[in-house]
């Protein structure tokens, strides 16, 4: 069998001869010389190709390439729970409360597993993961070097042992051992970042400073340790002490202290140290300027004073030939948010300056722009116009996180859409979220819930119910667990579009999402079902739903019972009567007396009509007697109607006649 290359070469040779043979009769006898020219050009082209084409020896693929290719072939399953809970379907959260509990449990489990692995590395010596996953392997958390040496100091720095590292540094100085400049820089960075305290372990309360100062813990609006990091810079701490002991201080040493002071709330002290650095004829780096710019609003009382501080710092950057970066301009824009109306006049100028320097704005840049121009209290068209321009510039772009504030853009943008009731713009923002992996920039689960809650609220207000349900099935429960307010918005959308027949379906979702214990939500559902009359099929589904709601109130579903109210009892009884479930409605009526509730006159009128429809004169008499037990003023009216409409025996007629002439009638007549 001949080699494949031989057949290919023979095919090319045969076809080239065919072309030349057919071209020669046309061009060969002429003096233009095209045939020879073509042959010469083909030879030159082949020579050039042979010289320029380089065949690679091997194509190198990343170890995750196959997984990434497979992941690109599938889309999100809108009927499944969030991907982080799909390991064990039995434990997948089905309610918002379970979602929070499961998230906290997973994080607690990770912390416990990490603690066990790091504390017992001898049990985890083999690594079977492919590719290698460093975060799953044991970390060295215990000190191994006890002698006084620079290597021991480096070990304590790498393990983030702040106090132990400072003590080792002091021992080295006492022993007369010089510490390298690089190690000193690392030590100052460590101490300044953690505020001269050892990092707080997961679950450990931050009470050391409060015990020393005798202060009570204060409630903070921030989240976690980020809120507790303010105003924690101590005077003459280890960072300042070590800094003062240095024979020579370079820019990195000043940078570590200035950034630490800004991070922990010592803003005036940071500016004072920066002045000291200039007096020592040192040039600042970009990190120092970024920190000082972010602290500018805290050192000026008036808006103009704050902006003067920022412009002065930017001029000094130019004089010292320090190139600004993205975080520099983001710090300026973030500071302008606290400069009132002055921020609007300078924000766009700052954004244009970024683009002139070739620095592409991040999502945080646009988030600050929106915060400057679109205040939460206002809902004018101008807010929507500014956001329109921003989205038009960002459309179709895939982002990576470059600033911690990048995760705030989508939340703020959707808030503006909700305030201005701009549904078209809301769709554009959601389309931007779905580009690439932009959904990762929605933030943590709490921030994602805020974003999708606002988007769903906007849908309920502005869209037809069919479109609302399309998004409802697309978002829930795969990315969003609606809160009670979100479900109330959905109920209002059903009422607006006259689709109350879908209320029983929504009730099932309310139970699945764990909101059947919210009294306001349940009563609103009952009110909508009992307000109007519908077809027999719809009334039957409403009655079944009402019985299920009754079981929730009675506590027969493994949960705490709800508190019965007059309206909830009346609505359930009315729904059962409208579906011709008289006996079950009568059982609900008996609950009024057991729960010390008083039925409405309209409900008793409905019951009397049901008794007449069923031909039950005895039930009519019992109904009037029950009205007497509640001391209702409608008792004589009910008795009169029963006497006129029912075929009664003498005993029943006597009872009703007596009730008709009750003292309530005399009191009413005399009044």
How many helices? The count is 33
Number of extended strands: 0
Strand content: under 5%
Structural class of the helix and strand makeup?
A: mainly alpha
Description of the structure:
- With 671 residues, this protein is mostly helical.
- Among the domains are: 120 residues; 95 residues, no CATH class; 69 residues.
- It has 33 helices and no strands.
- Helix 7 runs parallel beside helix 11, helix 13 packs parallel to helix 15 and helix 19 packs parallel to helix 21.
- The N terminus and C terminus are likely disordered.
How would you concisely characterize the structure shown here?
The protein has 671 residues and is mainly alpha-helical.
Please specify the SSE layout and strand pairing.
Elements: H1 4-27, H2 34-52, H3 65-71, H4 96-119, H5 150-158, H6 162-174, H7 181-194, H8 208-213, H9 225-228, H10 238-245, H11 251-263, H12 267-279, H13 286-295, H14 303-319, H15 326-336, H16 341-356, H17 363-373, H18 381-394, H19 409-420, H20 423-433, H21 445-462, H22 465-475, H23 484-496, H24 503-512, H25 519-531, H26 536-554, H27 566-578, H28 582-594, H29 601-614, H30 617-629, H31 635-645, H32 650-660, H33 663-670
Helix pairs in contact: 5-6, 5-7, 6-7, 7-11, 11-12, 11-13, 13-14, 13-15, 15-16, 15-17, 16-17, 17-19, 18-19, 18-20, 19-20, 19-21, 21-22, 21-23, 23-25, 25-27, 26-27, 27-28, 27-29, 29-30, 30-31, 30-32, 31-32
């Amino acid at each position: 069998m001949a080699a494949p290359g031989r057949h290919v070469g023979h095919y090319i040779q045969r076809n080239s001869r065919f072309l030349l043979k057919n071209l020669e009769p046309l061009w060969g006898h002429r003096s233009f010389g095209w045939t020879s020219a073509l042959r010469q050009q083909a030879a030159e082209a082949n020579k050039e190709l042979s010289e320029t084409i380089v065949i690679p020896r091997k194509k190198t693929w990343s170890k995750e390439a196959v997984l990434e290719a497979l992941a690109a072939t599938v889309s999100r399953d809108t009927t499944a729970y969030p991907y982080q809970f799909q390991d064990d379907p039995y434990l997948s959260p089905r309610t918002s409360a379970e979602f929070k509990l499961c998230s906290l449990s997973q994080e607690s489990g990770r912390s416990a597993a990490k603690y066990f692995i790091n504390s017992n590395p001898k049990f985890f010596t083999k690594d079977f993961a492919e590719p290698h996953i460093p975060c799953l392997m044991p970390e060295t958390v215990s000190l191994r070097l006890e002698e006084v040496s620079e290597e021991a100091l480096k070990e304590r720095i790498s393990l983030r042992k702040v106090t132990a590292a400072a003590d080792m540094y002091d021992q080295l100085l006492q022993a007369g051992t010089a510490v390298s400049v690089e190690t000193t820089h690392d030590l100052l960075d460590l101490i300044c970042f953690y505020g001269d305290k050892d990092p707080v372990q997961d679950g450990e309360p931050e009470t050391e400073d409060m015990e020393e100062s005798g202060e009570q813990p204060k409630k903070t609006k921030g989240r976690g340790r980020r809120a507790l990091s303010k105003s924690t810079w101590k005077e003459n701490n280890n960072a300042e002490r070590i800094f003062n002991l240095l024979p020579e201080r370079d820019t990195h040493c000043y940078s570590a202290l200035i950034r630490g002071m800004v991070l922990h709330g010592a803003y005036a002290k940071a500016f004072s140290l920066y002045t000291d650095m200039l007096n020592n004829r040192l040039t600042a780096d970009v990190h120092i300027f970024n920190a000082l710019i972010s602290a500018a609003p805290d050192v000026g009382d008036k808006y103009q004073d704050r902006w003067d501080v920022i412009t002065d710092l930017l001029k000094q950057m130019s004089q010292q030939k320090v190139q600004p970066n993205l975080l520099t301009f983001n710090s300026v824009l973030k500071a302008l948010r606290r400069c009132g109306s002055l921020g609007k006049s300078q924000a766009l100028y700052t954004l244009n300056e970024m683009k002139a320097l070739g620095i592409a704005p991040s999502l945080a840049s646009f988030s600050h722009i929106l915060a400057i121009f679109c205040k939460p209290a206002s809902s004018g068209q101008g807010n929507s116009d500014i956001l329109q321009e921003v989205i038009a510039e960002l459309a179709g772009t895939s982002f990576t996180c470059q600033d911690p504030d990048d995760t705030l853009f989508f939340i703020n943008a959707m808030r503006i859409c909700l305030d201005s009731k701009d549904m078209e713009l809301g769709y554009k923002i959601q389309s931007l979220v779905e580009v690439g992996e932009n959904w990762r920039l929605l933030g943590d689960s709490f921030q994602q819930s805020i974003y999708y809650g606002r988007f769903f609220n906007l849908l309920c207000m502005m869209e037809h119910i069919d479109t609302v349900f399309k998004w409802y099935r697309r978002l829930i429960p795969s990315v969003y667990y609606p809160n009670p307010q979100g479900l109330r918005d959905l109920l209002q959308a059903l009422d607006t579009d006259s689709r109350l027949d879908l209320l029983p379906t929504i009730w099932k979702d309310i139970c699945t999402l764990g909101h059947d214990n919210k009294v306001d939500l349940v009563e609103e559902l009952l009110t909508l079902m009992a307000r109007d009359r519908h077809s027999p099929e719809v009334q039957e589904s409403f009655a079944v739903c009402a019985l299920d709601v009754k079981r929730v109130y009675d506590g027969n579903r493994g949960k705490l019972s709800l508190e019965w109210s007059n309206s909830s009892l009346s609505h359930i009884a009315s729904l059962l009567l409208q579906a011709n479930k008289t006996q079950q409605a009568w059982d609900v009526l008996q609950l009024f007396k057991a729960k010390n509730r008083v039925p409405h006159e309209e409900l008793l009128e409905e019951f009397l009509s049901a008794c007449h429809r069923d031909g039950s004169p005895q039930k009519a008499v019992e109904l009037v007697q029950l009205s007497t037990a509640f001391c209702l003023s409608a008792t004589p009216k009910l008795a009169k109607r029963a006497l006129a409409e029912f075929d009664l025996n003498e005993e029943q007629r006597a009872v009703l006649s007596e009730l008709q002439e009750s003292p309530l009638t005399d009191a009413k007549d005399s009044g």
